Amino acid sequence: VLDSGAGAMAIIDSRASRALQLQMGGEVPVSGAGEGPDPIAHIVSDTGFSAGDLSLQGLSVIYLPLDAIPFFDDLDDVYFDGVIGAPFFSRFIVDIDYDRQLVTFTEPSAAAERLAKLGDSWREVPLQIESGVPYMTARVDPGEGVPVEVKLLVDTGFRGELSLTPSTHDGLSEPLEYFQSVNQGLSGDVLSRVAMSESLELSGYRIDGLPVRYAMAGGESESDSNGILGNAVLQKFNLAFDYPNQRLYLTPSRKFDVPVQVDRSGLQIRPHVAGGIVKRIAPGRSGQASSIQT
């Protein structure tokens, strides 16, 4: 997983990673979203990571055993083997072209030339890189009350749209009309109330009618942040991360005008070796009335 929200490189306990016979070092707690305890990972030293023609050597990475990952019950559930996080993002200019499904890593020595080729349609957004991960400021109009500026973790590893943590900001309040949602982060369950927002504005772009998850427990609050901007919104743009200069460049992708659909089924579906598996059915939702079972 290419994860801008990960402060480290990580290897997941899987059939592929077990075949590597890695030598485990000391233990370290790893923080993540969720209201449970932080999982314990192992340190693996002097590791090499490669992506395409590029590689980084001599890295210390974290290894997450299966019992430390709340969203995997067994090896058949594990659908990825690791996470490409901060070391790659801080070392290279990272372009994510959602239209072509292509990731490009550019050496810093060629960064100026690369960024100069982006064109007039690209806009520059200031980032704050804290503990190896990027934050940006955006403006949210929840439709109940007044618009507020929020500090968001820019997280390509979060599959959702926008998650806000009301307890971190006086201008954020619990929605009056909502449905319940339970998702999972690295530290356990994230209990949310999902409501439709009026709009989200970032770098002059406005996205209307966006579903927002208001995290009642287990939400993002690291580095005094107010929530997470996830991949369901980020894929509306093609992106270029420039960590050394704390900048994000973006331009609308072909998905910019495609409405984000709201999933009210209550089904938590994940990839599985057999194709897919329903991990959870939220009570009181339409999925509970179906014949689908976990």
What does this structure look like?
This protein is mainly beta and 294 residues long. The protein contains four helices and 22 strands. Strands 9, 10, 11, 12, 13, 14, 15, 16, 17 and 18 form a ten-stranded mixed sheet that branches.
Tell me briefly what this model is.
The protein has 294 residues and is mainly beta. It is built from four helices and 22 strands.
Architecture blueprint of SSEs:
Blueprint: E1 10-12, H1 15-18, E2 27-29, E3 40-51, E4 54-64, E5 82-83, H2 86-91, E6 93-97, E7 102-106, H3 111-116, E8 123-126, E9 128-130, E10 133-141, E11 148-154, E12 162-164, E13 179-185, E14 188-196, E15 199-202, E16 205-208, E17 211-217, E18 227-229, H4 231-234, E19 237-242, E20 247-252, E21 267-270, E22 277-281
Parallel strand pairs: 1-4, 11-18, 12-17
Antiparallel strand pairs: 1-5, 2-3, 3-4, 6-7, 6-19, 8-20, 9-10, 10-11, 10-15, 12-18, 13-14, 14-17, 15-16, 19-20, 21-22
Structural class: mainly beta
Main beta-sheet strand count, sense and barrel state: 10 strands, mixed
The dominant shape is globular
Radius of gyration of CA atoms, rounded to a whole number: 19 Å
Proportion of beta-strand residues: 35-45%
* Poorly predicted runs of 5 or more residues: none
Report the total helices: 4
Number of strands: 22
Overall average pLDDT? 87
Name a few traits of the molecule:
single chain, 294 residues, mainly beta, 4 helices, globular
